[in-house]
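Review form for a predicted model. The reviewer records the input and the model, then writes brief findings.
Reviewer: anonymous (R2)
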Amino acid sequence: MSRKVVRSSKFRHVFGQAVKADQCYDDIRISQMTWDSNFCSVNPKFVAMIVDASGGGAFIVFPLGKTGRIDMSYPTVCGHTGPVLDIEFCPHNDNIIASGSEDCSVMIWEIPEGGLTTPLTEPVVKLKDLNAAVEELVKRVKELESKH
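Model under review:
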């Protein structure tokens, strides 16, 4: 009685190649906040990631082509008083991003055409004093649009 222990597969001798360090993102302080969020958002121009920040919430936005080591002093988007929970780019304008925070506010930001060169602290629109903490930014914005 002969049994095959290993399934035969046409892919068992296929091996991948690791991506080179200069094609990866390195040294990004991703937020340690435990939340049901992706912690990042991407569009054809930019990559945005929620990062650890003291004194409130922040996230970084850098051009999609910028890979390698991200300097610790890279400018951030900061304006929330609580940790940022979710970020989402506008589907119609690549330079607009929205952020939702534990401080029960949603802020809409406009990223300069070439990316950030200095920290961005003033949002274009600030929606605050929402009834509950922002769980999912997309749902909250849709809820606000339906009220008005």
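Findings: The chain has one domain: 21-146.
Further findings: The domain at 21-146 is CATH 2.130.10.10 (Methylamine Dehydrogenase; Chain H).
Recommendation: see findings above.
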